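Lecture 7, part B: from sequences to assemblies.

Below are the input chains for today's worked example.
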Amino acid sequence: MIAFADLLERLLFTPGRNAKIALLRRYFSTQPDPDRGYGLAAVTGELSFAAAKPGLIRDLAAARTDPVLFGWSYDYVGDLAETVALMWPGGGGATPPAMSEVVEALHAAPKSDLPGIVAAWLDASDASVRIALLKLITGGLRVGASARLAKIALSEMAEGRIAPDEIEEVWHGLTPPYAALFAWIEGRGDKPDPEDAPVFRPPMLAHPLEASDLAGLDVAAFRAEWKWDGIRVQLVATKGGRRIYSRGADDVSAAFPEILDAMKFEGVLDGELLVIRDGVVAPFADLQQRLNRKTPGAGMLKDFPAGVRLYDILFDGAEDLRPLPFDERRLRLEQWYARVHPARMDLSDLVAFDALTDLSTIREGARAAAIEGLMLKRADSPYVPGRPKGLWWKWKRDPLTIDAVVMYAQRGHGKRSSYYSDYTFGLWRDDGAGNEELVPVGKAYSGITDQELAFLDRWVRNHTTARFGPVREVEKSLVLEIAFDAAQLSTRHKSGVALRFPRIARLRTDKPAAEADRLDTLLRHVATTPAEAAQ
Amino acid sequence: MTPHPESWLCVRPEGLFCRPGAFYVDPLRPVERAVVTHAHSDHARPGHGAVLASPETLALMRARMGEDRAGESQQALGWGAAITIGEVRVWLQPAGHVLGSAQVAMEWRGSRAVVSGDYKRRPDPTCAAFVPIPCDVFVTEATFGLPVFCHPSDAHEIDRLLASLSLFPERTHVIGCYSIGKCQRLIALLRRAGWNAPIFLHGALAAPCREYERLGVPLGDLRPATVADGESLKGAVVLAPPSAITERWARRLADPVVSLASGWMRVRQRAKSRGVELPLVISDHADWQELNDTIDEVGAPEVWVTHGNEEALIHAVGQRGIVGRALRLVGYGEEQDDVATTDR
Ligand SMILES: [Zn+2]
Ligand SMILES: [Zn+2]
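Predicted structure of the full complex, as structure tokens:
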């Protein structure tokens, strides 16, 4: 457990991606089986224990510590597991349990035995191990590294013989402690065969189409589709089970039971998850409501019905269609859809066009809330995992812009943690008493050059009027031109409107704050047109 | 009957006042007569008339604030040598906090009070170890006065630093530490662990290190950290004041591992909110257990707490029949606050 606790601690504090990979790789290559396999499961979120709950930890703390001191300590630390770990009396000196011992005991031990087992572990461990133990038990393990990073670290361990995507393809057919996986990584065994398991297939991704790419584009070789503003999903149904994966290989099945229910077929399909009411796509904010829930209630399912707009087929039954050109796959998709006709799914139509000018007009006209622009896919392109150049393009419509006033600033993350790089901006409105007031409408942290960032950072430091934790309130005197993809009504925002993908387009140091835009102007951009109208 | 300490020691706006001796201990504002426990800026303030302190504290005060501001007249007092001020017998014993840091022992008509200043109980190669003095009232700090604070051993933390240096040999490890005490202790601990390479210093740390060496604490090969030359600092250890490690200055180092050596690093959220990648729990203050053990060791029936998390400590000693009292002296602990609450 010592090495795992150390890994967790370093991952939590390490902002850099490469440093995280280095830490993971060192852990996997220095720890024995099956400990490292359970460590991998913990990092990738594959571990959970039904019998152990936070209440167990509260009871243990109550038995071992002064309640008054515990209360003050909890107030101070702000995290139950950490408080108990830090103030647990004595500890250390003995040998803490191995990772495998902990995982196996938590799975197998009867609930009534757990308090005694856990207390003995805590007695034998130092604070760092105690935190790891308690976080593992309560399921509060936020490791600060994605499952993808763990797979990249494993790929690096294989020294180039195995790509991260190859690991991805077998991943969901494996279970902790992954002995076969490590054997393959270390060249001691064959690639594990997932057989009928509903495994994830790394998706094919598109490049953004820039103005400079347009000239060289042989438009006739491409097909066009709408770019929907939902989340990309992969539907996998095999004899071994059904799964809904996000683009990043997260299993989101539990959040969308109605889709899972409708997957009465065998195959792998690629499409966009959307909230669809009577065939009309709802704004992204509606889908966000669903994404916020791990498991939706009945009301949620009724009010925010999910659907999938399909645009590709990877497997029909066991037949791998990925080597086929796009046009043939599209034909197979249409045939498959006509045959299976699954509930809650429809096809994303091809958009007809004759020439580039035609496409530009169509793209500019795509102002509906649920459409971000166009996808261009080469008619002869096979389905290639990753982001191959020149086969698929995403061509977002030009953004809308507003001039807004910076109200608050916050330090960024990772590389930008020493800069005030996240800005809350606002627009003017009448405060009801005849005065103008600023109301925050969004937050932006991208779109600027390093030079502009340095300027803004300095400006924020020199114009701070108040501090709230990590947030600085600033003088309301700097205008930013904010670009965004769409504006949607939102009850969760004070201004009543939420922006999609706000980013900083320009610094408007030339513009007085009083001349920034008013909230009314933004409200006129709110998309009221249903998505379907775009066609 | 000996007088109760409350009859001759009191809190005034200027700080803790010893009436029969007409002097203050670590006064927060300029006063006629001051006894100073140690050279940190929250305890040793400029502009007093007469200042009494250990020779090392006086030297560090002069180095920090300049000859003319470290007291109009200065009197150095060696360990254990007693003098009389007014009607009060006064002597100093080491507090183990930083070089020259002292506890102030005072005796009047058979009643004895000891003011600890800041103190720690761990061995520190750069200063004399804490000496417990039995007394009637013990005036203690409580910076880490919560049971969550239990400092691991220095060796454990230095091992973590060395492990990180070997895992990331291309990256500069920049460690935030106070300019007086923590900085030199870190250097000495690294030297003991076999780190003989040059250690690079932010400009603010150079003068205190020179003063430590002049006072007989060898620190090895120290060099100025010129960030413009970031490439040459790859894999090096750079020490800087806590406020500098996430500022522009540190950004120019080669892919820095930002570290901070402080007892506050025990709490993860504290470390995280400071943008620290490698928190090192190395403290110049007593931890919870050590505060309680020290109080039991000096055997005082009454404990006054100057600053820190006083209510928890008073609660804990109360359960052992010791009377606790919070002095609520506002102004101490600001050096710690720099770590704890910057950006709050
Ligand atoms: Zn101090
Ligand atoms: Zn202090």
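Note for the exam: The first strand of chain B starts at residue 9 and ends at 12. Keep this in mind when comparing with the next example.
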